[in-house]
Design goal:
The chain is α/β, with parallel strands linked by helices. The chain contains nine helices and 14 strands. The protein has helices at about 5-10, 15-25, 90-110, 120-135, 170-190, 230-235, 270-280, 315, 380-390, and strands at about 55-65, 75, 80-85, 115-120, 135-140, 200-210, 245, 255-265, 285-290, 305, 320-330, 340-345, 345-350, 355-360. α3 (about 90-110) crosses α4 (about 120-135), α3 crosses α5 and α4 packs parallel to α7 (about 270-280). The chain binds flavin-adenine dinucleotide. Flavin-adenine dinucleotide binds near residues 64, 89, 119, 311 and 316.
Length: about 400
């Protein structure tokens, strides 16, 4: 059990332990209040069984990062109109409904009502469903389907500005576009709460620090690399509840400092399955097909296509502006009762119901940058798990 909100705020911060001790240890000796004051309840986080022997899989995936942000323009390839919808970095799931709304509107503006979607990841599936909702007949063409797409290897959090573009590209026009996509996605996700299997849910997430003054990121001396854009706090601050602090003595993780945020989480196995099943139920067709160049689209009957090939667009369209950003997850046996996330020493823990997720996230967004290797790194996976396990070794 945890404190009621007012009391939580009162107890927040380094002085909280002292205050709790004072209230707990004494009674106030007046006639009106001659009774002991009950000890303040602490925040009890259910004990996580984190150990390397419980790892069930180590997955590696590539984020399709573009310095200028996602590609959403329209291109003519022979008689075909191609609407691009790729390059969402570490935000593909988070922005999918908003980004695909833009792509869908552009596709429908061609007046075609028989439309092909190339790709069956986060962007392809949401594009296909939105087209169906607008009355179009849709066929998905893809080399691979979930769970064998890159989207299925994501962390599964609503992170709409994660590696979305570089700061220089975050012009007022881009910010407006991004904010629209993010808000629309956020609202759409609210309609997917409380469904069987919990494809989407909210979780509490705790940033844990040994020293509350230590910066989350260490500045790198002489670092001249361009910064990644950070937009969420500036433009979407109203969408998430305020953070709440817990000082030592007010929680079950020892002499540490906790900051609680609220995050939206995607249980991607059931979520992707639901999107696929909805698409098929609405009459959607799927054809397994690999394209080697845009000229291959000539074989398709549809004249309007949405290109949602993600990192695949780099080879298919020769788009060298896509930079791979490697990310690795260690997956672990789910544990009932673990419904909160953690962030400690640059390791993230996400309590997905379809397998717990541990991830070294590095010092900054350059972690994994320009790295398209896909070999799992067992040492990194164990480091992630052992770092989180430290929190429960008290
Ligand atoms: C480690 C990691 C963690 C992440 N965590 C998050 C997160 O928590 N939240 C979030 O919002 N985002 C996250 N992301 C980012 C997110 O996963 C991507 O932005 C998103 O998956 C991109 O989806 P997509 O549909 O564009 O591409 P993909 O999922 O790669 O789908 C592409 C589709 O196109 C098909 N295709 C590709 N090339 C061809 C071809 N030549 N011919 C035919 N078909 C083709 C593929 O088979 C596939 O069906 C994460 C990424 C990584 C790597």
């Amino acid at each position: 059990m945890e404190n009621p909100i007012g009391r939580r705020r009162l107890l927040a911060g380094a002085g909280a332990a002292l205050l709790v001790g004072a209230l707990d240890g004494c009674s106030i000796d007046t006639l009106a209040t001659r009774r002991r004051i009950a000890p303040a309840p602490t925040l009890e986080l259910a004990r996580l069984r984190a150990s390397p022997d419980r790892i069930t899989a180590i997955t590696v995936c590539t984020r399709p990062f573009r310095a200028q942000g996602p590609r959403l323009d329209v291109e003519r390839v022979g008689p075909k109109t191609i609407v691009h919808n790729y390059g969402h970095g570490g935000s593909g799931w988070s922005l999918s409904w908003g980004s695909s709304t833009i792509a869908t509107q552009k596709a429908l503006a061609t007046d075609e009502r028989d439309i092909g979607v190339i790709g069956c990841g986060a962007l392809g599936l949401t594009s296909a469903l939105l087209l169906q909702r607008a009355g179009a007949r849709v066929t998905i063409y893809a080399k691979d389907l979930p769970p064998n797409v890159r989207s299925s290897l994501a962390t599964g959090l609503w992170t709409p500005d994660s590696r979305i573009c570089l700061e220089d590209s975050a012009t007022p026009a881009f910010k407006q576009l991004w904010e629209g996509m993010a808000r629309q996605s956020f609202q759409t996700y609210q309609t997917l709460l409380g469904l069987p299997g919990n494809p989407v849910e909210f979780i509490d997430n705790y940033l844990v620090a040994d020293d509350p003054r230590a910066p989350r990121r260490q500045p790198v001396a002489g670092d001249t690399r361009p910064k990644f854009a950070e937009l969420q706090r500036e433009l979407l601050g109203d969408l998430t509840p305020d953070a709440v602090d817990f000082g030592p003595g007010t929680h079950s993780l020892g002499a540490r400092y906790l900051k609680r945020n609220t995050l939206m989480m995607f249980n991607l196995s059931v979520y992707a399955r639901m999107l696929l099943s909805d698409f098929r139920t609405n009459g959607g067709q799927i054809e397994i097909k690999e394209f080697h160049s845009p000229a291959d689209f000539a074989s398709l009957p549809q004249r309007t296509l949405i290109n949602a090939t993600g990192y695949g667009a780099r080879a298919l369209f020769g788009d060298q502006s896509i930079t791979p950003v490697r990310g690795q997850l260690a997956r672990m046996i789910p544990q009932p009762g673990i419904d909160y996330g953690l962030f400690y020493k640059r390791v993230s823990f996400v309590p997905r119901r379809d397998g717990l997720v541990f991830q070294v996230v590095g010092n900054d967004e350059y972690y994994g940058f320009d790295d398209d290797t896909s070999t799992p790194n067992r040492a990194e996976a164990e480091l992630a798990v052992n770092t989180i396990a430290e929190l429960f070794s008290i």
